[in-house]
């Protein structure tokens, strides 16, 4: 009997304790709800886990001092600007490499680096035994041709007088043809060695051999290279001078293959030259059809007028290429806040309530940023007061 009473007392105590726990649960949950927290239970008898509110969701307080301006994101046609490194180069159609026409020794230098020259100006003087021998061969061929011409004239007179036969006349005419061909060949050789037709005629009249010749400019422009010194023995294969017309130059650049679709021939481009501190305008005249396998780039070329000679070949330059316009969301730069290592904007989710949303943006274009991804055109964006609202969000987060 005593054991039954003891068991009954224990059961009564357990029931009372269970009732206390059940009555305590709603009170704890209400307290957590009142504090703005959420409670989670992981199984029977597990610990209660508290999750803080969304830190990216912020409500504009009533005493917020900054101006708030919200507008739809919208979409507009914008062009991406591709910036690629380049350099100033010669216009290859306005550059000529000038060498000697004969083998000989340089006896005089008449043009120096930076000198302006015209077509026909003498750059250097060469003494060539090869030229003298070619002139001697021409004089011999000419004398032989004159001799054969007189022989044919006499043969025609003798044939008319029935002194010689037709075969003798034909033989002498054949010898004249051979001598004339040899004279023409010797004259052509003199032209190859740089003598003009006037100089050859003068040689024929005077009969004097002149083994001195000049290296002459074949283009009007500036001497940009000189690879010869007085006393040097030169050959026709040697490039002694480089003359360039710098009134127009090229600007070349290497475009990454991933952006090759943004460029095309005939496109207007802007060119920045750091050495001048100015921006020039040019036009793409060439876009390579192949990719450089080492750099994975394609070569593009622009032509620029250079009448003032300010652009110097090998100057560094930056080419700005405008791509075709595409529809994109464009935001003012003040609507973007930098949080951590990401760009973010405030998207309106309710009256005076915003969510900080990460976005991927294009480069700054005169105080505007094109949105590549992250938001849609029908969303409303905070464009004024974003900086101050982000500070308010951070303050609330710290609290």
Fold and architecture overview:
With 399 residues, the protein is α+β, with helices and mostly antiparallel strands. It folds into four domains: 24-52, no CATH class; 59-78 and 326-398, conserved putative lor/sdh protein from methanococcus maripaludis s2 fold; 82-92 and 244-322, Elongation Factor Tu (Ef-tu), domain 3; 99-243, Beta Barrel (OB fold (Dihydrolipoamide Acetyltransferase, E2P)), CATH 2.40.50. The chain is built from five helices and 25 strands. Strands 3, 5, 20, 21, 22, 23 and 24 form a seven-stranded antiparallel β-sheet that branches. Strands 6-15-18-17-16-19 form a six-stranded antiparallel β-barrel. It has a four-stranded antiparallel β-sheet with strand order 7-14-12-9, with no helix packed on it. It is rod-shaped, with a radius of gyration of 46 Å. 20% of the residues are buried.
CATH topology of the largest domain: OB fold (Dihydrolipoamide Acetyltransferase, E2P)
* Overall number of domains: 4
- Quantity of strands, as a count: 25
| Radius of gyration of CA atoms, rounded to a whole number | 46 Å
Order of helices and strands: HEEEEEEEEEEHHHEEEEEEEEEEEEEEEH
Highest CATH level, the class of the largest domain: Mainly Beta
Strand content: 35-45%
Euclidean distance between termini CA atoms: 63 Å
Q: Counting H and I runs of at least 4 residues, what is the number of helices?
A: 5
What's the CATH superfamily of the largest domain, by name?
Answer: RNA polymerase II/Efflux pump adaptor protein, barrel-sandwich hybrid domain
Proper CATH architecture of the largest domain: Beta Barrel
Give the class from helix and strand content and strand pairing.
Answer: alpha+beta
Mean pLDDT: 82
Largest sheet: 7 strands, antiparallel
Helical amount among residues, as a percent range?
25-40%
Overall geometry: rod-shaped
Instruction: Name the poorly predicted regions.
Output: 1-8, 15-46
């Amino acid at each position: 009997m005593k054991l039954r009473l003891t068991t009954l007392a224990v059961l009564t105590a357990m029931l009372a304790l269970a009732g206390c726990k059940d009555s305590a649960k709603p009170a704890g949950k209400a307290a957590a709800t009142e504090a703005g927290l959420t409670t989670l239970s992981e199984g029977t008898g597990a610990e209660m886990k508290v999750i803080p509110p969304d830190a990216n969701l912020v409500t504009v307080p009533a005493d917020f001092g900054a101006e708030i301006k919200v507008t739809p994101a919208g979409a507009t046609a914008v062009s991406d600007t591709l910036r690629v490194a380049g350099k100033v180069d010669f216009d290859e159609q306005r550059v000529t490499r000038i060498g000697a026409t004969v083998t000989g020794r340089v006896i005089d230098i008449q043009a120096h680096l930076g000198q302006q020259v015209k077509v026909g100006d003498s750059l250097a003087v060469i003494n060539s035994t090869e030229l003298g021998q070619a002139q001697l061969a021409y004089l011999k061929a000419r004398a032989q041709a004159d001799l054969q011409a007189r022989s044919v004239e006499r043969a025609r007179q003798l044939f008319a007088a029935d002194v010689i036969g037709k075969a003798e006349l034909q033989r002498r005419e054949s010898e004249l043809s051979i001598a004339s061909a040899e004279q023409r060949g010797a004259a052509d050789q003199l032209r190859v060695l740089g003598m003009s037709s006037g100089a050859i005629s003068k040689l024929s009249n005077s009969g004097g051999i002149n083994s001195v010749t000049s290296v002459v400019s074949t283009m009007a422009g500036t001497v940009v290279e000189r690879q010869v010194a007085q006393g040097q023995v030169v050959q026709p294969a040697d490039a002694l001078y480089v003359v360039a017309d710098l009134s127009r130059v090229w600007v070349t650049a290497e475009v990454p293959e991933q952006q090759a679709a943004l460029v095309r021939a005939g496109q207007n481009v802007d060119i920045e030259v750091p050495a001048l501190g100015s921006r020039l305008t040019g036009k793409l005249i060439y876009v390579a059809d192949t990719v450089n396998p080492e750099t994975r780039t394609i070569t593009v070329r622009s032509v620029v007028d250079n009448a003032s000679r300010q652009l110097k070949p090998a100057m560094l330059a930056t080419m700005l290429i405008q791509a075709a316009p595409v529809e994109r969301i464009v935001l003012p730069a003040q609507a973007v806040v930098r949080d951590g290592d990401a760009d973010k904007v405030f998207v309106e989710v309710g009256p005076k309530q915003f969510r900080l949303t990460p976005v991927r943006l294009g480069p700054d274009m005169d105080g505007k940023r094109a949105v590549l991804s992250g938001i849609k055109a029908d969303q409303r964006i905070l464009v004024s007061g974003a900086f101050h609202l982000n500070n308010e969000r951070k303050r609330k987060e710290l609290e």
